[in-house]
Amino acid sequence: MDQGQVIKRVQEHLPQTLETLKEYVRLPTVSAQHSAIPETVAFVVAMMEKLGGVTRVLDDLGGNPVIYGFFPAGSKGDPGKTLLFYNHYDVQPPEPFDEWETPPFEPAVKDGKLFARGVADNKGDLVARLTAIQLLQESEDGLPCNVKFMVEGEEEIGSPNLEPYLRKYQELFSADACIWEFGSKDEAERISMVAGIKGMAYLELTCEGAEIDMHSSIGAYVDNAAWRLVQALATMKNKENEILVEGFYDGILEPSERERQVVRNLPFDTEAISRLYGLKRPLITEALGVDPREAMVFHPTMTICGIESGYTGEGAKTVLPKRAKAKVDCRLVPGQDPEHILACVKSHLLKHGFDDISVKMWNGQKAYRSDYDHPFVSHVMETARHVYGHEPIVAPNSAGTGPMYAFGEALRLPIVSTGVGWSGSKVHAPNESIRLQDFEQGIVHMVLMLSGFAQAMDAHLHRSQSGNG
Amino acid sequence: MDQGQVIKRVQEHLPQTLETLKEYVRLPTVSAQHSAIPETVAFVVAMMEKLGGVTRVLDDLGGNPVIYGFFPAGSKGDPGKTLLFYNHYDVQPPEPFDEWETPPFEPAVKDGKLFARGVADNKGDLVARLTAIQLLQESEDGLPCNVKFMVEGEEEIGSPNLEPYLRKYQELFSADACIWEFGSKDEAERISMVAGIKGMAYLELTCEGAEIDMHSSIGAYVDNAAWRLVQALATMKNKENEILVEGFYDGILEPSERERQVVRNLPFDTEAISRLYGLKRPLITEALGVDPREAMVFHPTMTICGIESGYTGEGAKTVLPKRAKAKVDCRLVPGQDPEHILACVKSHLLKHGFDDISVKMWNGQKAYRSDYDHPFVSHVMETARHVYGHEPIVAPNSAGTGPMYAFGEALRLPIVSTGVGWSGSKVHAPNESIRLQDFEQGIVHMVLMLSGFAQAMDAHLHRSQSGNG
Fold first, then answer.
1. C-alpha to C-alpha distance for B439 and B191, rounded to whole angstroms
2. Distance spanning both ends of chain B, measured CA to CA
């Protein structure tokens, strides 16, 4: 099929494809809340089997089940080449409900967009990829290579159980290259991909001051868990966004000159970002004179994702709270180790006299960067150039996180992430959406990418052989 | 009636009295949540009218209605003397629900205690006082003086509308002395009263960072409302409990030598307090080498009553919150002005670069101290000595707050606060309770106090006259 034919077929298929996607996002698969896991697993398996895929539901190592899917190359395809798709079927919690314009688990089409929790992150991408397979299967030449899927159900809580599955089922998931779960167009409508991801140490700090909530009048002599937590947090990062935890920056691998150059050339539109989120203040990088692109790719972060203590309802309640909690998300870069970060935060708190604050890690993951010069990276970029009509943006790693390090370590393959989101997708926030046009283009891109995949990998093989010869 | 007779009558009345109290605390009169106001007003009016009280429901000046009640002296009593009771019919919010052992608005008797939201603060006291009137009415000599009630419905949100009512209805509420709403036994079972109260500036600080919640990965370059609020709060009070807001201590009136002496002799059992609340750390006064009794009576406070931002549910949600809020309760001492405190906090935030944090005052009240040497204070102490069998504790002012300043200014009378709570009453917290025995003693105390009231005030009159002569 040429690109024109592919576009035509995608559009013919769209009504049916959208029905499938709507049905998928109706499932409230919130892993943090243990919700709708079995029915979602059954739904994903059914989608794959409907297209003749071979599936296995792996649940022998704990956690939510991991779904394996396999689609063999057609008779005219190359059975020696395998592309692996990584997706996840779980979604972020939908809260706060009252800020959704339509209910999070009732998909609504409006102004060419489909709104629902998980539609951009990451259920839309799975449906797009399965549709690409279907279209290739229905084409004259059939599926041009083997395709495998790994669809897990704990990405939004940090994939705590994924690594053992990858190690035990290394052969089952073995492939020549991997397309990662996500991607989107940026503020200037450029398709934006990454060849790596940041890691994470998602911490929860808890200060216990007493066994019961007290009347606030005794604040004259009784210590306050909320004040303690506030004072402790204030020692960990200053107003200028500098992380003050000793050892936090240990082991960071300096990026290569090529990577630095790529990052310097990434587009970044401060105005557009500010408008998009309705920011009330300048970017925090401005105070430090830092290039926000470098911060995005090369700098670790420490973000308060949530803090809670005492009475937070309407009006005044005069309570001295017994407990205070904060959720702190540290995004890590290659070379940083989440376990070391946890240890550093613990020892920082002790050093500053906060022995009443305990720290727990909800999610620890290392960062990963693929070999930026691998022909697979070039192939994904080349096909994107055709589909999107402009030079794609490929960052050495994303600002976001995923369990890519475990894949890279276990399967030894290049990984590129691309997907069907847009700059206003609001992933992890209320009113998450994709645009139907991006969804169509994403399917077309996957059809073209799969069509030329075996050949591109052959070129790589030849290059490697001649390099070794 | 002698004390023995009074005790007997109180016990005979108890089943009926308890039924009335249970019915009263079943009403979920949460002023912060605008709940059950009209039905509670009707209930209080009915209780008074059942005893022949004359009532008026005042609602011409806004806010929840203020209830006036009047019980004239009996034929053998002194119609020239009037005692005013101040009570409130509203209660604190019951949250967090899951920490109540029995539902907050379903009164439960267990181990000699009655559990319900508002039973100690302050519905139990109103029923005790009305019962005392009933017993005196039923006695041979009848009610020995006039008794007035002011029962308001916004005490738990800081009595924002009380002052205009006091000014407009100054004559209606005029009296010779006032018994204030609350009181309890302390950790060592001593009846504990106050002749004044602290004031309050209850502030809410809000930082708005963006118009929508964002994905936490962009914390590399986007500023964070929760971090801003934490950093701002940390500039307002240090780890050692010192308030750092410039001007906060302005105007504080130094206590008299008599007041200092009384405070130095107040009982204070650090061990017992620590056990009662299950404190995890030493008293915060220890770090500063401050006497906790002095802190309790003479020092202003700044307490975080609540803080909230972003995701606070189970597990990890990687969100960069658009907004953060904190509720901060400052308890004030005589001479401090809540409006000035508000202005100081605002200018402190600006001075420290936090122009993105707004401050609102939910509740502003000045502190008040009665004349400690007034014979009414002595009369209340003397009758307490008889009922409780030990020397009562009377602090120059409480650590807690109420609209006493407005009473003192408008009605010019001495005020003593006493009530039926105990050290484990958990006012403002889950599992609020009173002990039935304290409830009985409180009724007996009010009977004796009213019996000798006219005579005590006459002695005062004579003292004043001879003083003037």
1. 12
2. 36
B205 and B181: one domain? no
**What percentage of chain B's residues is helix, strand, coil (to nearest 5)?**
40, 25, 40
Binary contact (A315, B33; C-beta < 8 A): yes
pLDDT in tens, A212-268: 999 999 999 999 999 999 999 999 999 888 999 999 999 999 998 888 998 999 988
Q: Are residues A167 and A23 in the same domain?
A: yes
At A305-345, the pLDDT tens digits run: 999 999 999 888 899 999 999 999 999 999 999 999 999 99
B222:A363 CB<8 A: no
Residue A327 Cα, gap to closest chain B Cα (Å): 8
B92–A317: do the CB atoms touch at under 8 Å? yes
Q: In this structure, is residue B337 part of a structural domain?
A: yes
Find the CATH number of the domain harbouring B457: 3.40.630.10
Chains A, B: CB contacts within 8 A come to 336
HSE-CB for A239 with a 13 A CA cutoff: 10
Cα dihedral B231, B235, B241, B242, rounded to 10, equals 180
Backbone torsion region of residue B168, taken as left when φ is above 0, otherwise alpha when ψ lies between -120 and 50, otherwise beta: alpha
Query: How far apart (Å, rounded) are the C-alpha atoms in residues B374 and B453?
Result: 13
Q: Where a domain ends, among B365, B390, B409?
A: B365
Asked if residue B96 has a cis previous peptide bond (ω within 30° of 0), the answer is yes
Domain that holds residue B221: 199-252+300-365
Torsion-angle region of A373 (φ positive above 0: left; ψ -120 to 50: alpha; else: beta): alpha
* Domain match, A373 and A323 both: no
- Give every CB contact of residue A333 below 8 A, 6+ residues apart in sequence: A198, A199, A252, A253, A298, A299, A300, A367, A397
What is the rounded average pLDDT of the residues B176-180? 96
Helix axes B436-451, B124-138, angle to 10 degrees: 50
Q: Is residue A467's pLDDT more than 60? A: no
Pairing of strands A108-110, A113-115: antiparallel
Residue A139 and residue A91 in one domain: yes
Domain tally, chain A: 2
3-state secondary structure (DSSP) of residue B435: strand
**B185 contacts B192 by C-beta, under 8 angstroms:** yes
CA distance B292 to B283: 8
Nearest to B166 by CA among B397, B412, B333: B412
Q: Looking at residue B460, what is its pLDDT?
A: 64
- What single string gives the DSSP state of each residue in A378-440? HHHHHHHHHHHSSPPEEESS-SSB-THHHHHHHH---EEE--SB-TT--TTSTT-EEEHHHHH
Find, in chain A, the residue whose alpha carbon is nearest to that of B210.
Answer: A279
B314 in contact with A, Cβ within 8 Å: yes
pTM listed for this prediction: 0.79
Q: Residue A10 is encoded by which pair of tokens?
A: 């995608």
A146 and A113 together in one domain: yes
CATH number (domain holding residue B236): 3.30.70.360
ipTM above 0.90, yes or no: no
Contacts of A317 in chain B (CB under 8 A): 32, 92-93, 95, 156, 305-306, 327, 428
Helical residues (DSSP H) of B139-186, grouped into ranges: 162-168
Residue B377, in any domain of the structure: yes
> Of B348, B365, B382, which closes a domain?
B365
